[in-house]
Amino acid sequence: RAASLVRRESSPAAAITRLVLTLLVASVHCGRVCHVTASRALPPRLSEAGAPGRQLRTSLPAAAFSTLFLEPLSLPPLAPGFCVGVALPDADAHLPIQIASDSLARSTSHLTPGVTTSAVVRTISRLGVPTAELHPQELARLEKLRTVGRQLEYAAGRIALRRALLLTGNTYGSHPLLSNEFGAVDMPKRKGSEGALLLGSISHTKGLCVAIVAGSDDHCCNLSPVVGFDIDDLRGVCAATEPDVNESKTPEHMCAPRAAVGVDIERVDRRPMTKLGQRILGEMERRDLQMRMSGLTMSMEAELTLRFSIKEALYKALHPLLRTTIPWHAVRVLPLADGTVEVDTSSDSFNKLLTEPGLEGSTNGRLIATARWTEREGFFLTTAVALREGQ
Questions:
Q1: What pairs with residue 379 in β-bridges?
Q2: What is the rounded distance in angstroms from the CA atom of residue 303 to the CA atom of residue 290?
Q3: Span of the secretion signal (predicted)?
Q4: Residue 172's pLDDT band (boundaries 50, 70, 90)?
């Protein structure tokens, strides 16, 4: 096609210009097609291994809110799901960033027809936020956030989650992904399946935001399905760093779901605070870390960051089931070299949570939790599942 167009030009200069422009357009189109096609044609290694991030790209694109990876995900015993990562722009750069325009973005362009753009929306649009992928109610919530950085994180979480939801076969354009009073996000039900809920979780760090979605046959009262909370939104309720946090108990007309998932993303080179180990690890965990009982070859600082990430993911999965403050030391974790995690919930402090007065369903079965981790392209990506047996 390029050759035929070049032959039509009357001069060599015009022919060269035509050739360059044609090849440039073709390369951009090819890149977009290959991006989506390769993402959808990934081999089933993730489903077999049950761990996310096994096929993170070797180089991360620079376009803000572009899909960095899009992968099948297995979180047994839940139904298969998906893990999506999007590029999170730097709010401190104060530079316009080109919006990535792939098929996922175009497929959600109907979400905000006729919405009047406010000053806040125009500002974040200049930073690369594809506002067409956000529900009007999400935009209204975004406008109330105080900083541009928090606005970008909020938008990235909803965009990543909606792109993951699209992979389940539904657009969910009419369902706003808003946080409830616990900091969790109300999720839609799976299309054409009564009582079958879609579970999910969101996490972000500098440069990257991830979301996971998995299926569940869970149903409980009239309670909406939930996403694992964002620890920044919940202001430390689950992190339990402040003993005087007063969290409202679950309303009497609501009951906790039977299953929930959590995800966390952290940079491997993150430098943990000096007292982070004492803050999040129990005495036995600190001893295991010093003796390198995990068998991991990474530095002690990196393993501490990994343990922190695993606990973040676990708390996101556990909180929708318990709905109370979960101390860091209540759950013990030991990451292993194969990507699995030994999770111990037998501590007295955790058992106390299960029998705490006022918790709906606290005596209905045993609570189990599992977690997995992987390291790719300088990030720790951790996932967790919490299940209540016996209901």
A1: 267, 376
A2: 10
A3: 1-30
A4: low
